[in-house]
Design a protein that fits this description.
The protein has about 180 residues and is of the alpha+beta class. The protein has a domain of about 130 residues. It contains two helices and twelve strands, in the order H-E-E-E-E-E-E-E-E-E-E-E-E-H. A five-stranded antiparallel β-sheet has the order 2-1-7-10-9, with no helix packed on it. Helix 1 runs antiparallel to helix 2. It is elongated.
């Protein structure tokens, strides 16, 4: 009878568990850089929840890219007197597939600070990519950081889950009650 109780408890826990949360964690995305009108490089990145996806020393400071559940954060620190990014036009983040529940990007909310020049803007987005316009940005002083964050608004394709009927729930309750009562005798 002890085995029946364990099975019943496991079934109840399985019924109570909610659907998996959709996330970019665990996905492989592509990060492309557009310089002087052409893609100068594309880097595949595996999204990991515990580390930066990209952290690299640069001649003028450090660049860091971090991707979370549904956001992309990029920062540059400046150790030079002034830092410009000649020819840099765009970053393209593509192949954004959600782990846990398929979905598509329906909006992108941009936050930025520290960079000077024209504002960073979203050039475009598709259901699985975002293109960010960085043309003309610069950092003007040493020890200044610039960052931007993209918060992705996503609609997830969640299939309808049929709900058990009231009679099925009543029957399940009676079966469980009889199993427990028989176990105590």
């Amino acid at each position: 009878m002890r085995l029946y109780r364990q099975i019943v408890v496991m079934l109840l826990l399985a019924l109570l568990a909610g659907p998996a949360r959709a996330s970019l964690i665990g996905d492989e995305i592509l990060w492309s850089t557009v310089v002087n009108g052409s893609v100068s490089g594309t880097m595949p990145l595996i999204v990991d929840e515990n580390t930066f996806e990209y952290a690299s020393p640069l001649p003028f400071g450090v660049a860091i890219l971090d991707i979370a559940d549904s956001s992309i954060w990029f920062a540059v620190t400046n150790n030079a007197t002034s830092t410009t990014f000649p020819g840099l036009e765009q970053y393209i983040f593509s192949d954004l597939d959600w782990v846990g529940s398929p979905g598509q990007i329906v909006d992108v909310i941009l936050t930025q600070d520290g960079f000077l020049g024209p504002p960073i803007t979203i050039d475009s987005f598709t259901p699985d990519s975002v293109t960010v316009n960085l043309a003309g940005i610069f950092l003007a002083q040493p020890d200044i950081s610039g960052f931007f964050q993209l918060n992705l608004v996503v609609e997830h394709d969640t299939p309808g889950v049929p709900l058990p009927s009231g009679a099925a729930l009543l029957l399940l309750g009676l079966v469980l009650l009889s199993l427990f009562r028989n176990g105590e005798q």
